[in-house]
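Workshop exercise sheet. Pairs work together: one partner reads the sequence aloud, the other fills in the structure field after running the prediction. Swap roles for the next sheet.
Pair: D.N. / O.F.
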Amino acid sequence: MYGASLDDVASLAKFAKDQELEFSLLSDPDGSAATRYGVLSGKARWASRVTFVIDEQGVLRAIEDGVKVRTHGEDLVKLIERLKG
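Structure field:
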């Protein structure tokens, strides 16, 4: 599992440490990945909170664009369990 942000590497490293994250964060400071995934807001320079579930073969299995920060981890676990069937 990975997270991605427009923030720089140093900021993300601090955030990951402070939040004790158990996954890697990827820095996309120029917004090129966010643009390709269609989540960059344009001139405002922020990306929408969207989760893309991609399987081991690189196949996109789900897009969650109604991310609720407080329950997202739990919601994502349920979604992955449903996808595994």
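Discussion prompt: The mean pLDDT is 90. What would you look at next?
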